[in-house]
Inverse folding.
């Protein structure tokens, strides 16, 4: 049985009963190994080299053939060209020759094994012998056409592949493999060729050659076209998809020191525009896929985690320092409760073909997050530790004390006034020589970023597991400690029954977030522009410095440290769990059902000590605290039937299913006041008065049936149909249900013979188009009802509570629908080393559900209504992936994506009378600002002057007609460029993000020269008007807060002078890693060891006048620049 | 293939039958009541009007109480009653104080009286409609509720027409009909006010009721028949219907339930003088007026205590006027003496609730009747009414003997009697055509410039933009 042992590694996949007749088996095995004569791939072992000998010396036992060939190549300089499948299937060789001619050595390798070789220049081409000249036909086997052939398809490790398609080339005959990877086909000709394909693998063609039993090993494709992409209720590859899907892998996510997975997507996905609302950990993100579809309602994509829709409504809360995410009442980013380290991939689904199966929830696209799974094999333990610092990306240049006081004095001179008792900065109350860079002190501190992860995975062929734990800590940039700490556990178990029919997957993700925040972002006008000679924050004894005057009144009532005394401690526990059970009823038909349950529980304590207010005010103030508790649950059940069959000219994949979902939320808060000490604010029992805060309760139910038909014909033509019927509790009774659907078509023209023959440089070419409808129900619950809410009072009115109407309602609410058209072309050149995808998107969103603005005479400013208005989003998207250099030691790849979006209001019947005339303009973007046209500072008076609609300059423009300048804040184009260089174990990845846009710059905070809360100014105010005749961009300094100066100043705020170019190029991510060589890791008893340095937002190139061009806010912390170093170990 | 079809068919049927309306129908949230149910039940129907009073007692944009008493305070700043002492960073107060309002001031956070008032009108209209459509309300409750709603609607329009002039007349909750309404002439608005008040007079209970609208109480915090008469007297006075004004005022004055109280007793909860008060609903204060106007021992701050009585107001008191002594107090701050309104006497957070927000009181009714009688030529009857108010303040009888003199005396008496009460002064100046002569002196002292058009506030630009038929007031 030595013989058997010798062949074992190669033949492990062949079923055991075949060992019974070993002799017969050998011949058969060899026949199996006779594979297609087509050269699917060239493997260049060495290039050039002329001075090699023509003699070879070979010695060794059980050497794989590819190694033998490599040895020959090294000695002779010849390259070998062959089907790599041969390498897998050829037996190992035992050889011992010395200085034999090349041909002899080759004969030894190939003789009698059904192969021939031919020399061509410096290349040796190895091919299988034609069947006719096969030497080893066993007369006992297959004398006639076999009535039935059967076989098995496995991956390269021998694991059976279920659902692989086996087609007889050039016929309509085909089938797919069962759970054990087995297939059977009737009446297949002896000379027929089988085409075997499986998602993510290189398609294989195998000649039957009269065999009745065929084993095929599929190799994972190295082409990016064959990378598995997770889509709705399934998976696909770029090669076969007809939809617009972009996948970001764990590798790209890992390189970024971020705590929110959404941050990792910025700039990486064409058509996806993400804005971080501020730089505080856990803050909201504005996510728009292919533009803003809805005029007034939710524009959030649908988030799906491991197949379970994720409720993005954040829990209600008391504090509000975190920025909003665009539409929800909540503030923080709900995705910040997903640990980026647990993510395997994120798929962004954009067009109707990819999203219509999600129906009413997918008008704004879908983001599918897939968490990590275990793999069979030995137990692998990975640990990583990363630590670094963050700092705000940019600062404003502000006046120093000398410049500031000069401004103030000039303001008094201009006004003909002298400083009064309240002008502390000038009247001697404050030290006029003092200077503090408040920006640095209040928000410019470096913050800490730490994350540590340990994971273990392993399992056997039937059960695999993955488990990981992560700890993460990030701090905010304000003085004091405001840490955001997260701990999470993620696990995943996969199990398959022995007969491969029953499959179970269970995953869970539990995260605890402990976030401590102030309730106010110190990056407000108030603090970022404090007078530079404001007193010290603390007194020498460490207490808050109110800089009291002789009366005991605070001259520094806005001491920002006082604001930080109000603290908000928020703990959130998040559980996301998911189970999938599936059973194969018979070959091709599978019943599966997914079950999802998510729970988020948040508790919050906000404490406001008496020290928040100056001592003089303290007798009139009281200590207070608020306690919140919120719980949100959602469950979903999605039974599905999936049928796969190959027939006709291709393979058919039919899916049908139903969804039952319920989300519910309940939360409330309690306020306490009148505590007698700051030390016991956490105890509600210590409150003299207790009163209820908010109560929120809502239920959302959702029900749907859906279906998908996908047919791929001859690897050339693809048809994809999706249907969904949806019902949602958010709509009035007349409009509970709606149908959605899409059709997608694809043509892989590179598979056509005439293209292959004439355009051989084209390795891949596909044309796809899709059209369909999707809906949007992001309007909040109960909107169709007029509701009256109880009003709580400290002192009930006559001992009773009241009811107040919550707003106007409309019982006829309907779905908002988006018709999406997507056309794209994929081109691959030089064996897919260059891949270019060009897409055109046209989305028409109509039946707009709008908070229809009403004049306030109706009692409320708006009512929700369906409008016949149409918003059009078009965009042109490019993705270019190139492998610029690829050698054994060095590689350089480049990914570029570019999106040129265009958003416009296509139609809006009766816009003039709709109440939206002042907000929207037909044919223009829906993201507009209507502003005055600022002429500049009047040289005579030093006051801002505007151009009226009538063409005459005016100091007092009329808001009802003079706001005729329309500024679009949409990006003109955006994208990213990622370059990855790898030399041996060292990898450098440099990712630039770029955006071309106009934005609201740091405009006019307060009148330059005025004294109050936030009064310092950017240095550009130094270019002010000083005397009649001056031509200056900035108005005259003035202390005055009323009259014409203030109106013209605020009008200037609302003018085009407030907007500037907010385009930027940002070195978003830079990542350097060094993988220790195998030798070194072996010595250290490690599987792998990697050192790395990551940087996020490292560099920003912009002309923006303000803080950060991304969030364009003067009132919230800019995004952070984070640099970390770390180590990743495999044990 | 047949088997497959059958299984697929079966599966689809299962899914289809599962997709049911019943599943996705949800009841209203457990935290609110839907409009369909509100007016089917006495308690919830009454709670809507209670909600409105609560709103007024704390909502600061409408002439109501609240922490800063914005209603009284801003109109006081607007007229010649107040003087700002500290003025750190408060654009709202600056805008009203300098008579420098403009139409998009809401953009910079300056409140207007417009939207909040119309929100109250919505509740009134909703109650009028809901009560009339309901068949399950107790008749007495239905009647009182309709009366309260009409009374409050008239009260709201009284403010709108005085502050803005012509205003859209919204009498239903149907926004599809209301959204594009133009302004209705002042005359028609006044007609509606009088019609609503006349109805309210018929509908409202003569006795004070509790929140259930079914039991009598001593708490004077819901409008009654007398409140309707008192408002009616005001409305007739403003529209020059002297005879009816007299009749309406007489109905209140002759009602035994009301008497002129001692000066320090007027503003106490349920005082004998009060015809209608609002019960404060916030924990930390009694009335917003007390909290805002009384300057604490530590002096002015930059937050709440920012203004004192103006010199014009201070000097308006005659020698020996007890109101100068009892309703005005002073403080020395930074070496100077400042005077402040002291009608309400409680400012401390910890004090028990002893004062209510005064909405209508008997003193005003005497002054209304005095003016109405004088206008009808009954000067001696008029003098008797005027003197009733004067004698309480320790002042001698009026010496006015001609109609013009008498009207001047009434205006003056109103200034000293009704100062810093819901903009009475601001409205009187306009009503009696004294606004230009008084404000052209007062406004420059406040750092602004006066122009006659400023007697009407600008209509918020938001509404001008959203209702194309709405025309801005002249001058803005």
């Amino acid at each position: 049985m030595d013989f058997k042992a010798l062949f074992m590694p190669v033949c492990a996949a062949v079923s055991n009963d075949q060992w019974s007749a070993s002799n017969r088996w050998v011949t058969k095995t060899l026949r199996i190994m006779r594979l297609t004569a087509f050269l699917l791939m060239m493997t260049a072992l060495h290039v050039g080299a002329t001075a090699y000998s023509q003699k070879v010396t070979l010695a060794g036992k059980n050497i794989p053939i590819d190694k033998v060939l490599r040895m020959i190549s090294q000695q002779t300089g010849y390259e070998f060209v062959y089907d790599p499948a041969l390498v897998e299937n050829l037996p190992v060789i035992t050889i011992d020759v010395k200085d034999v001619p090349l041909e002899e050595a080759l004969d030894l390798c190939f003789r009698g094994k059904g192969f021939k070789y031919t020399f061509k220049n410096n290349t040796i081409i190895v091919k299988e012998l034609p069947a006719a000249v096969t030497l080893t036909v066993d007369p006992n086997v297959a004398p006639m056409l076999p009535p039935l052939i059967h076989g098995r398809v496995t991956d390269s490790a021998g694991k059976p592949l279920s659902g692989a398609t086996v087609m007889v080339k050039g016929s309509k005959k085909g089938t797919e493999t069962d759970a054990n990877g087995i297939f059977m086909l009737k009446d297949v000709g002896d000379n027929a060729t089988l085409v075997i394909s499986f998602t993510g693998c290189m398609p294989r063609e195998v000649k039957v050659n009269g065999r009745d039993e065929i084993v095929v090993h599929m190799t994972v494709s190295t082409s990016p076209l064959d990378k598995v992409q997770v889509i709705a209720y399934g998976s696909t590859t770029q090669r076969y998809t007809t939809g617009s899907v972009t996948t970001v892998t764990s590798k790209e996510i890992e390189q970024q020191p971020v705590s929110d997975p959404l941050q990792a997507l910025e700039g990486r996905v064409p058509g996806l525009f993400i804005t971080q609302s501020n730089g505080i950990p856990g803050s909201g993100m504005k996510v728009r896929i292919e533009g803003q579809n809805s005029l007034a309602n939710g524009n959030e994509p649908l988030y799906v985690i491991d197949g379970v829709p994720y409720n993005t409504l954040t829990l209600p809360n008391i504090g509000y320092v975190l920025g909003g995410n665009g539409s929800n009442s909540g503030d923080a980013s709900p995705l910040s409760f997903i640990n980026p380290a647990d993510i395997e991939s994120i798929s962004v689904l954009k067009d109707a073909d990819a999203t219509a199966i999600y129906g009413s929830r997918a008008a704004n696209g879908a983001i599918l997050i897939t968490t990590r799974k275990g793999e069979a094999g030995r137990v692998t333990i990975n640990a990583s530790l990363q630590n670094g610092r963050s700092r705000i990306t940019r600062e404003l240049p502000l006046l120093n004390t000398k410049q500031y006081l000069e401004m103030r004095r000039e303001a008094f001179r201009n006004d003909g006034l002298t400083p009064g008792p309240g002008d502390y900065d000038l009247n001697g109350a404050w030290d006029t020589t003092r200077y503090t860079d408040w920006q640095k002190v209040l928000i410019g501190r470096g913050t800490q970023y730490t994350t540590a992860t340990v994971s273990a995975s392993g399992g056997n062929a039937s059960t695999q597991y993955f488990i990981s734990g992560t700890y993460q800590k990030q701090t905010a940039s304000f003085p004091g400690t405001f840490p955001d700490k997260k701990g999470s556990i993620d696990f995943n178990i996969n199990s398959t029954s022995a007969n491969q029919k029953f499959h179970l997957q269970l995953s869970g993700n539990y995260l605890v977030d402990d976030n401590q925040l102030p309730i106010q972002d110190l990056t407000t006008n108030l603090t970022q522009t404090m007078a530079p000679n404001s007193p010290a924050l603390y007194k020498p004894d460490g207490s808050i410095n109110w800089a009291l005057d002789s009366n005991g009144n605070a001259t520094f009532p806005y001491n920002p440290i006082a604001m930080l005394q109000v603290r908000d401690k928020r703990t959130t526990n998040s559980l996301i769990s998911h189970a999938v059970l599936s059973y194969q009823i018979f070959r091709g038909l599978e019943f599966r059902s997914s079950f999802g349950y998510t729970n988020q529980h948040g508790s919050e304590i906000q404490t406001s000590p008496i020290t928040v207010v100056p001592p003089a005010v303290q007798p009139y103030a009281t200590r207070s605290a608020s306690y919140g508790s919120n719980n949100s649950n959602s469950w979903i059940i999605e039974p599905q039937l999936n049928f796969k069959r190959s027939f006709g000219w291709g393979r058919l994949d039919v899916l049908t299913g139903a969804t039952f979902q319920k989300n519910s939320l309940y939360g409330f808060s309690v306020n306490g006041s009148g505590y007698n000490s700051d030390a016991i604010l956490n105890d509600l029992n210590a409150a003299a008065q207790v009163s209820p805060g908010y109560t929120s309760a809502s239920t959302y139910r959702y029900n749907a049936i859906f279906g998908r038909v996908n047919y791929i014909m001859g690897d050339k033509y693809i048809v994809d149909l999706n249907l969904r019927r949806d019902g949602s509790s958010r709509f009035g009774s007349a409009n509970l249900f709606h149908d959605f659907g899409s059709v997608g078509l694809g043509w892989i023209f590179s598979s056509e013979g005439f293209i292959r023959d004439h355009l051989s440089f084209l390795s891949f070419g596909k044309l796809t188009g899709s059209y369909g409808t999707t809906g949007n129900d992001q309007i909040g619950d109960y909107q169709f009802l007029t509701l009256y809410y109880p009003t709580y009072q400290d002192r009930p009115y006559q001992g009773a509570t009241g009811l107040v109407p919550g707003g106007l309602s409309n019982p006829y609410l309907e779905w908002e629908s988006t018709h999406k058209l997507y056309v794209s072309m994929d081109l691959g050149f030089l064996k897919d080393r260059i891949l270019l995808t060009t897409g055109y998107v046209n989305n028409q969103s109509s039946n707009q559900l709008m908070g229809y603005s009403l004049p306030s005479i109706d009692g409320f400013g708006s009512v929700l209504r369906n409008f016949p208005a149409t918003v059009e989003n078009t965009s042109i998207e490019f993705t270019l992936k190139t492998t610029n250099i690829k050698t054994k030691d060095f590689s350089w790849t480049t990914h570029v994506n570019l999106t040129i979006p265009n958003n416009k209001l296509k139609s809006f019947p009766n816009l003039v009378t709709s109440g939206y005339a002042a907000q929207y303009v037909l044919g223009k973007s829906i993201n507009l600002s209507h502003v005055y046209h600022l002429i500049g500072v009047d040289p005579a008076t030093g006051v801002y002057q505007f151009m009226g609609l009538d063409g005459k300059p005016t100091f007092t423009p009329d808001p009802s007609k003079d706001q005729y300048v329309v500024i679009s804040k949409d990006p003109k184009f955006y994208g990213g460029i990622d370059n990855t260089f790898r030399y041996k174990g060292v990898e450098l990845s440099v990712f630039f993000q770029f955006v071309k846009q106009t934005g609201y710059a740091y405009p006019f905070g307060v009148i330059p020269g005025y004294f109050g809360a936030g009064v310092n100014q950017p240095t550009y105010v130094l270019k002010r008007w000083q005397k009649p005749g001056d031509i200056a961009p900035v108005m005259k300094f003035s202390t005055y807060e009323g009259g014409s100066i203030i109106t013209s100043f605020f009008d200037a705020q609302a003018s085009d002078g407030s907007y500037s170019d907010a385009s930027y190029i940002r070195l978003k991510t830079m990542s350097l890693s060094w993988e220790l060589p195998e030798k070194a890791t072996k010595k250290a008893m490690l599987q792998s060891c990697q050192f790395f340095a990551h940087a996020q937002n490292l560099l920003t190139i912009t002309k923006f006048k303000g803080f950060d061009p991304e969030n364009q806010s003067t009132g919230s912390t800019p995004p952070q620049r984070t640099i970390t170093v770390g180590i990743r170990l495999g044990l | 293939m047949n088997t497959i079809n059958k299984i697929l068919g079966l599966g689809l049927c299962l899914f289809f039958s599962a997709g049911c309306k019943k599943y996705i129908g949800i009841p209203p949230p457990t935290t609110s009541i839907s409009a369909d149910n509100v007016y089917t039940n006495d308690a919830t129907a009454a709670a809507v009007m209670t909600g409105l009073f609560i709103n007024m007692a704390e909502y600061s944009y409408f002439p109501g109480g609240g922490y800063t008493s914005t209603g009284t305070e801003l109109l006081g700043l607007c007229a010649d009653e107040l003087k700002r002492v500290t003025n750190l960073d408060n654009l709202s107060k600056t805008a009203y104080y300098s008579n420098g309002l403009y139409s998009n001031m809401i953009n910079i956070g300056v409140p207007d009286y417009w939207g909040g008032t119309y929100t109250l009108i919505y509740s009134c209209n909703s109650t009028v409609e809901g009560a009339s459509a309901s068949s399950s309300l107790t008749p007495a409750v239905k009647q009182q509720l309709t009366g309260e709603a009409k009374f409050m609607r008239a009260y709201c329009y009284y403010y709108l027409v005085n502050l803005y002039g012509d205003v859209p007349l919204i009498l239903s909750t149907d926004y599809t009909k209301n959204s594009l309404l133009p302004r209705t002439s002042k005359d028609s608005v006044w007609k509606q006010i009088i019609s609503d008040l006349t109805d309210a007079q018929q509908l409202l209970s003569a006795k004070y009721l509790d929140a259930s609208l079914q039991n009598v109480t001593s708490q004077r915090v819901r409008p009654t028949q007398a409140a309707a008469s008192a408002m009616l007297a005001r409305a007739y006075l403003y529209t020059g219907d002297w005879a009816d004004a007299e009749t309406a005022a007489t109905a209140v004055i002759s009602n035994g339930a009301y008497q002129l109280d001692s000066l320090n007793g007027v503003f106490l909860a349920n005082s004998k003088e009060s015809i209608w008060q609002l019960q404060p609903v916030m924990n930390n204060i009694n009335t917003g007026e007390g909290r805002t106007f009384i300057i604490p021992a530590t002096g002015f701050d930059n937050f709440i205590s920012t203004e004192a009585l103006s010199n014009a107001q201070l000097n308006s008191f005659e020698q020996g006027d007890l109101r100068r002594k009892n309703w005005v107090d002073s403080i020395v701050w930074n070496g100077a003496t400042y005077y402040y309104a002291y009608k309400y006497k409680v400012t401390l957070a910890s004090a028990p609730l002893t004062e209510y927000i005064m909405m209508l009181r008997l003193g005003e009714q005497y002054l209304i009747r005095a003016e109405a009688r004088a206008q009808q030529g009954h000067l001696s009857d008029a003098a008797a009414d005027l003197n009733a108010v004067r004698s309480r303040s320790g002042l001698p009888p009026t010496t006015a003997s001609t109609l013009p003199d008498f009207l001047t005396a009434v205006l003056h008496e109103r200034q000293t009697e009704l100062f810093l009460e819901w903009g009475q002064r601001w409205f009187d100046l306009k009503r009696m055509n004294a606004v230009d002569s008084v404000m052209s002196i007062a406004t420059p002292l406040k750092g602004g410039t006066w122009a006659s058009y400023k007697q009407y506030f600008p209509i918020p630009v938001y509404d001008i933009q959203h209702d194309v038929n709405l025309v801005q007031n002249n001058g803005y």
